[in-house]
Every structure is written in structure tokens, then in C-alpha cells.
Design brief:
About 5% of the residues lie in helices and about 25% in strands. The strands form 5 sheets. Strands 1-3-5-7 form a 4-stranded parallel sheet, with no helix packed on it. Strands 6-8-10-12 form a 4-stranded parallel sheet, with no helix packed on it. The chain has a 4-stranded parallel sheet with strand order 9-11-13-14, with helices on one face. By secondary structure, the protein is mainly beta. The N and C termini lie far apart (about 35 Å).
Length: about 200
Amino acid sequence: CIILKGVTIGENVVCLDEYAFCNNSNLKELNFNAINCTFANSVFSSCSSLTDVNIGDGVEKIPEYFISDCESVTNVDIPESVTSIGNNAFSGCSSITELTIPESVSDIEQCAFSNCENLENVVFLGKDGIYIGDNIFDYSPKATICCKENSYMHSYADINVIRYCIINSVGVFPAPLPIPFTVASSKLTPLLTASIVLANASC
């Protein structure tokens, strides 16, 4: 598959084998429409030229290691049909700067957005009823949770000392504010509190 430049996974595809398209350096476009697919690990991992990722409106689960280590992907629109995001689904996507998690998502598994070094704003549109796995923002030092006030993600950010900002009534959130910090025992310690809280990720 070394010259394969585009892949469309139809809604009736029921199984994809492990590493099926992994490390394909020429793959640039992925259209993923599978509604009920058994998805093995790392099917599209480490496709270094992949830039366009389109997830179909009927997709309910984003599989584990979905596009992990696809460093050229800059944007992914997650449709409102999605209810679950698998572990390490977007880990190592170092060019993604923001993501919007629709209200339909109720399950985000461990390390889903880890090692995304340029990920800044992750907008959570839901309020309650969401399961969050361990270390979803591990080694993503710029990540900011943008969420509704008094939502589950608001509490999650507070408890886990993750930088956050509050979405206002019209769905607009303020730009993250810089917060001075010191480095002590490999942890970032806030010196100041404001409308956001500095993240501390560890894995």
C-alpha cells in the first residue's frame, strides 16, 4: 500500500485488522464512515502525511489508537453521533491545536489526547454524564479544557489541576490567560489563580 493516498472506510465495513494502514507515508486522506466496526489497534497510526480526516455522521465510536502519531493532521471534526473516544485515539497528533467534543460523547478513554504538544483548546459541549479515563491530556502541556460552568468537566479540571476556561451563555470562551508558574518536583505549580488553572499532566 506504499502508494495509497486516500482511504474510505464504508459504513458497512465490520472489521479492520491491526496495523492495516500503519506507517503509510503517502496516505493523505481518510474518510471513516464505519458504524459498527471491530477495529484492531493502530490501523492508521504513524501515517506521517495524513492531513485530512473525515468522520462520518453515523459513527458512534472513535476506535483506540485511531490516528495516533499522525503528526500532520491539523483538524478533526467529531460528529454529534459519536458517543465514545477510544484510548490513545489522538495521541501523538502534534499538529492538532483544538478539538470540540460534542454533547453526545459519554466516554473518553485513557490517554485519548496525550502527547499532543500543540493542542490548546478542547471544547466540551456536554454538561454531565461523561466518563473520563486516566491521563487523557498526558504530555499535552498547552491543553485547556473549555467547558460549561458547574459541568462535570469543570469539576474534573479543578480536581485534576488542569487549565480551564468557562464557556459563556452564547458558547464563546475567553482566550487562555498566561499564568506564572514554577517548576518543582517535575510539577507545574500555579502562583496565581484566574479564570483558568494551569495543567499538570503526568504519566
